[in-house]
Please model this.
Amino acid sequence: MTLANLNSLILTLVTFIPLAGALLLVLCPRRDRDIRILALVVTLLTFAVSLHLPAHFHRSQGGFQFEVSRQWITTPNIHYHMAVDGVSLWLVVLTTFLTPLCVLISWKSIDSRVKEFFILLLVLETALIGVFTSLDLFLFYFFWEATLIPMALLIGMYGHGRKVYAAVKFFLYTMIASVFMLAAILWLYAKTGSFDFTTLQSAISHGQVAGFLSAAPWLFLAFFIAFAVKVPLFPFHTWLPDAHVEAPTAGSVMLAGVLLKMGTYGMLRFNLGLFPEQARRNAPWIITLALVGIVYGALVALVQPNMKKLIAYSSISHLGFVVLGIFSFTQVGLDGAVFVMLAHGVSTGALFMLAGILYQRRHTYEIKDFGGLATPMPRYAAFFLFIVLASAGLPLLNGFVGEFLVLSGAFQARALYGIVAATGIIWSAGYLLWLYQRTFFGKITHQENQALPDLSGFETAALLPAAAAALLMGVAPLLWLNMIDPAVHTALLPFSDVLSKVAGQ
Amino acid sequence: MTQTIPQVADYIRILPELVLAFFGLVVMVLDPLLDDEGSRKTLGGIALLGALCGLGASLWMAQSPGLAFWNMVRVDSFSVFFHVLITAIVAVVILTSYEYMAVQRIRAGEYYGLILFGAVGMTLMSSAVELVLIFIALEISSISSYVLAGFRRREASSSESSLKYFLLGSFATAFFLYGVALMFGATGSTNITAISQALQAKGVPRLAYVAVALMFVGLGFKVASAPFHVWTPDVYEGAPAPIVALMSTGSKAAAFAVLLRVMFEINTPGRFWLIWVSAALSMTLGNLSALVQDNVKRLLAYSSIAHAGYLLVAFAAQPGPGISAAMFYTASYAAMNVGAFAVVSHFAGAEERYVTLADYAGLGRRSPLLAATLTIFLLSLIGIPITGGFFAKFYVFSAALKSGLVWLTLIGLLNSAIGAYYYLRIIVMMYMREPKGEITVRRIPASLGVALALSVLATLYLGVLPGRVLDFALRSATQLMQPHRAAITPAPTPPVGTM
Model:
């Protein structure tokens, strides 16, 4: 097979290998060990195949690559159109990177209905990759909705506590919000006869869509609300803590690591890509919400007695940075936003794995039930410290790069934005380090904690890649940024028009 | 009236009806010959054969399109579409009934006969182009469903269901007949093409509006659209589950076929607000009431009201996309709803004991296969991608948006989000709750397995490759609009202020 052939096939492969693996699992007899091994093999294979993308990506180009476009359905005019640019490429790799870790972390902790669990996880992976690779709005919506079911089932079937409540809340929140997006997509289709992102983009920018000017504010909002709930942007965030706290560890990792990024990715791709004018007009209040989210999320995280809830609220704060970066419309800001997406995926994914490891041993997330854990679990404590520092934005680790870029973008846009957002970083150091102190330092207050076993082999295997990635992203961010940068540059082209027009007047 | 004696071609054009009626008669004749206590599975087999032959005859009939029996019947892509759909539904319903009848200990051969006779009425409804013949076909199908609804003779609820359906149903068909009479008064004809031409040529008399409204009452009752929906939950709750599957898909499809002909082929005056209001009401009332149901049959009854509402949205749209969207919707709704009721009727057990939501707790553990199939149907009813239900909603709403019905579309989309909640409740019950009590789920018998497999395949086929069915529907839609298109183009009717 030639490279050109492979290049046009690669996205299809990456997207559907997990699904094929899921089908294989359906046929597999219920021997839990075999199922786990098969799931691991499939996810590792997907990851390996997905590495083809960064390896053969033309770094200097901003546009879409590895493109494949086939007619799928003639009426309506739906294409199987997939391609990635520097942004979506890394989100795909993030997904394929985190999934095998999820398999490893669930190796022991999922012990009933194992087969269903891994089937759902693999289906979820396919849907997530599909979201990032689709360039046909219909196909995008299709995968977007398809992520809901496996995720809701993962929470509802394998979670704990009020899992059903959390699953249904998650499903309804995101489902209702995405209805508006569907309406907007249908409207665009009714006016243009196309679902194709690039076609729509050029039709809109050339003013060829009848009635667009009057509808644009509504269309922008319709897309935005779907994405804002997913991010989740304050005040649409209330589903997130519930979903996280009750979800099984792998569910939380996928949720925080990848699902939330669907929202920010959607804003970047569609809100900015299709409606630049509206994005610019709406930016002030969106940025305000993002800032409120940064500070509010951090403050609430500070007072959480529940470890998992703390991490969940810290996600709200971190994702606020992403939204801020996106709507700063500056090159650095957007670079940073994309980088935060990736960094947050790795480090928060790892934090949820760490929380899950404790839960596995003690069946509680309450911080007050721990303390002094550094003595019985030294290796665990070391990993935890490393990830906490990465998440808090220590230089040379992954959290720092993205947040720094976002902040400098925010300062470029407006100094006030940067000042308010910068407090978020201080808060995050506060709640994370305090969490670490309460959990690991001091005397052991609970007898049960005396003899907690340290990390098992599977757990180390799940954590080590995440820690390595956190380090690598902090030391050599250019590996990522030099692909992100051209893509962001392309995304910002319509804004430079607008900005120069404003400057010219 | 050029011919006085029916030709062979005339008979070919009603061949499916003839075949179905013939097999129905065979079942009736054989029934008394069988041992009283014996199984009636042979008769079921004959009925199944009849339905399949009817399906074959429908496909054969497609070879000779045209009018038959003095312009009373028309065979075109449109009627072929509904013939195939209805006979397929009947075949699957018979497959479902096979095991059901044995479990319920109902040994009555006429059950299968009545299904076939009902099918005669339903198929005829889709090809009749003469209002009086439509009325007769409507009665044929209704009467057999009145009887079938009462087939769980030991249950009071079933008799209630039958009686309620009969009383309200005959009331509603009387409305329809009244509308037909008034239409005759207004235009001097009961032939759809003639009516359409008369309305084009001579303008629309006030009487015609009343006639349309009355006919809509009758048909609105049959498709269970608000505000004529009140009978639905009680009747669905009491009637045997496979019969509910038939009523909610087959009879509905036939009634929608008639509605499509009446509304679009006649180019009915003043239909817009009539349908707009009914669609909005059906969606909203159906979904809101379904939220609080604890009985799965009642829940699905309200859901069928809501789906009638979504379907009516297509009727408010422009003819081209509207008709094809409505046809696609009936087909995919049939696939998923027949399947859902097949699962319900199997799980219900003897005397339909297990029909509450609580009984479904832990079905995912008790019978993973049954739960997984029901999940597919429910997801399709929600309208999740890769299921037929998604494209059905999709076509309907994009047709509506193309016609500028932004508000109706928004109402519909919000409703489908509300609807997600109660379908989800069932899925949650099946997978996320622990099984309670001793409910033994019987093994899935081969006949039911085939029925379920067919429904799942149809649901997924329509969800992954909807193109062929939609193209066929589009072709039918253009054919349906053909006869008087010539008449329409020169003199478009101005929107009249009434209604």
Observations:
- Confidence is low (pLDDT under 50) at residues 484-499 of chain B.
- Chain B touches chain A at residues 364-365, 379, 384-386, 394-395, 397-398, 401-402, 406, 409-410, 413-414, 416-417, 420-421, 424, 428, 431-433, 465-467, 470-471, 474 (CB under 8 Å).
- Chain B has one domain: 8-481.
